[in-house]
Amino acid sequence: MEHSFSITATLKVDKEGICFLNGKRIELLKQIILTGSILAASKKMDMSYQQAWTYVQQMNLLSPHPMVIRKRGGVNGGGAEITRFGQDMIERYEQIKTVHEANVRQLGDELLFSIF
């Protein structure tokens, strides 16, 4: 049933009170995969390089395995790549997000239906 009201909720995974994964960080990881660079990914997202680098550092520190590996220098400059573990985390986050969104919709329908 459609309502003029809706319930929304965002998915965030914390570790010890610090954000490990959320929608913005997952998008950053996806952009790093597409561009091969933290700088290029940050530009695509209209985010400063410093903010992107902070996200990458936090994810790598909180994670049991590295998620992003930087590649330094060389003829074509440096770059970055997402590890297999990082790719697995993207997939798991997306799976959890799908279930989360379905549950929020169902809860909203149940609660709002009982009101209206």
Molecular structure report:
The protein has 116 residues and is an alpha+beta fold. It has a single domain, classed as Winged helix-like DNA-binding domain superfamily/Winged helix DNA-binding domain (Arc Repressor Mutant, subunit A, Orthogonal Bundle). The protein is built from four helices and four strands; from the N terminus they run ββαααββα. It has helices at residues 23-35, 38-44, 49-62, 84-115, and strands spanning 12-15, 18-22, 68-71, 79-82. The strands form two sheets. A two-stranded antiparallel ribbon has the order 1-2. α1 (23-35) crosses α2 and α2 (38-44) crosses α3 (49-62). The mean pLDDT is 91.
Quick overview of this protein structure:
This protein has 116 residues and is α+β, with helices and mostly antiparallel strands.
The tally of structural domains comes to: 1
Going by CATH, the homologous superfamily would be Winged helix-like DNA-binding domain superfamily/Winged helix DNA-binding domain
Rg, rounded, reads 18 Å
Q: What's the story with the biggest beta sheet?
A: 2 strands, antiparallel
Shape, per Cα inertia axes: elongated
Estimate what percentage of residues fall within beta strands. 5-15%
Look at the helices and sheets and give the structural class. alpha+beta
* Terminal residue distance: 11 Å
Number of continuous helical runs: 4
The CATH top-level class label: Mainly Alpha
Provide the succession of SSEs: EEHHHEEH
The appropriate CATH architecture is: Orthogonal Bundle
Strand arrangement, major sheet: 1-2
